[in-house]
Amino acid sequence: MRIHREGYMIILITLIITIVLLTGINLLFPSQTPFHYLFYLALAVMDLLIIRFFRSPERPVNPQKDEILAPADGKVVVIEEVEENEYFNEKRLQVSIFMSPTNVHVNWYPIEGDIIYYKYHPGQHLIAFHPKSSHCNERTTTVIRHESGKEVLVRQIAGGMARRIVSYAQEGAHVTPAQELGFIKFGSRVDLLLPTDTLIETKLKQKVTGSSTIIGRIKS
């Protein structure tokens, strides 16, 4: 299991803080007590959780041309038809995936195609389940045009714990589901806005795996 590059600095800072705390407590209270061992355990658990959060698994990807793959690990919390007003200004099928702090937080492109639109939106940090989080929270919007001419919008949304969204999207780039779209730090959500004639193959509350689970198929 690899560690994602977005975690290098945070892990380094965490380890430095751990060393400082261990040194400090042993200088101030050199006699070892049960409290010391509990403190050591708490620091070890904290360090392991942070390292685990930034894990970056390698996943072989070989999708069919019409497949829309999950852009993130997590649980499907929304499947509904909505009015999309940032880019399409028309009805779209929304599929939302909630990423808990225990999930892998790498994001992948759901289809192969060309990025024709990208925008970063500063905003609030409402909990990711909140109905207004898609419009009020800090987020990024990326639109990919499939070879069929159909367009898919991917929206990274910061949650109540997430404090930074990283996106590698660049307008004009050709991308595939094997490539990383970005990373969201500490709890978040990813929305897909799909053509209304998309053949959905997932269910509400289903757990999905990024770049592996088929969300749906683009209808040609």
Helix and strand string, N-terminal first?
EHHEEEEEEHEEEEEEEEE
User: Nearest-angstrom radius of gyration?
Assistant: 20 Å
SS-derived structural category:
alpha+beta
CATH architecture of the largest domain: Distorted Sandwich
- How is the main sheet built? 8 strands, antiparallel
Structure summary:
The chain has about 220 residues and is α+β, with helices and mostly antiparallel strands. Helices cover about 20% and strands about 35% of the residues.
3D architecture notes:
The chain is of the alpha+beta class and 220 residues long. The chain folds into two domains: 2-56; 67-217, Glucose Permease (Domain IIA) (Distorted Sandwich), CATH 2.70.70. The chain is 20% helix and 37% strand. It has three helices and 16 strands. It has helices at 8-28, 34-53, 133-136, and strands at 2-3, 55-56, 67-69, 74-84, 90-99, 106-108, 113-121, 139-145, 151-158, 164-167, 174-175, 180-185, 188-194, 199-200, 207-208, 214-217. Strands 11-7-8-9-13-5-4-15 form an eight-stranded antiparallel sheet. It has a three-stranded antiparallel sheet with strand order 3-16-14, with no helix packed on it. A three-stranded antiparallel sheet has the order 6-12-10, with no helix packed on it. Strand 4 (74-84) and strand 5 form a beta hairpin. Helix 1 packs antiparallel against helix 2 (34-53). The protein is elongated and about 70 Å long. The model has no long low-confidence stretch (mean pLDDT 90).
